[in-house]
Amino acid sequence: VQLQASGGGLAQPGGSLRLSCAASGRIINIWTMAWYRQAPGKQRELVASISRSGGTDYADSVKGRFSISMDNAKKMMYLQMNRLKPEDTAVYYCNADWTYYEGSNIVASKDDWGQGTLVTVSS
């Protein structure tokens, strides 16, 4: 199984970016997906999460600016980031709470991560 994040890049303050996360492999169920970020010298923090039923949660620092969505059928997750600020600069990672086949075994995991995509907000 794999989580592949994309869409990062350079944006100006006040600008927008849209991140995507593709989940692939022998997935059985995805219960929750989430975006985390890690800025240089800081700990990884939760940005936003979305459940299979569509419930969402956001860090206070991004409420009203970021929007998370998920396409269950395509096994895709998105993060629309608007009104970006320099403090949003970080590597953004996608995470899944899911079950999948590993060989003939069923694995339940919350500790699988994509490779990260760098978002830089600067003028």
Overview of the structural elements:
It is a single chain. By secondary structure, the chain is an all-beta fold. It is 0% helix and 63% strand. The chain is built from no helices and eleven strands. The chain has strands spanning 2-6, 9-11, 17-24, 27-38, 45-51, 56-58, 66-71, 76-81, 90-102, 105-113, 117-121. The strands form two sheets. Strands 2, 4, 5, 6, 9, 10 and 11 form a seven-stranded mixed β-sheet that branches. β4 and β5 (45-51) form a beta hairpin. It is elongated. 28% of the residues are buried.
Could you give a short description of this structure?
The protein has strands spanning 2-6, 9-11, 17-24, 27-38, 45-51, 56-58, 66-71, 76-81, 90-102, 105-113, 117-121.
Core attributes:
elongated, mainly beta, seven-stranded mixed sheet, four-stranded antiparallel sheet, single chain, 123 residues
Dominant shape: elongated
**Number of separate helices:** 0
Write down the Rg: 14 Å
Mean pLDDT: 95
| Straight-line N-to-C gap | 37 Å
Strand-helix topology:
Elements: E1 2-6, E2 9-11, E3 17-24, E4 27-38, E5 45-51, E6 56-58, E7 66-71, E8 76-81, E9 90-102, E10 105-113, E11 117-121
Parallel strand pairs: 2-11
Antiparallel strand pairs: 1-3, 3-8, 4-5, 4-9, 5-6, 7-8, 9-10, 9-11
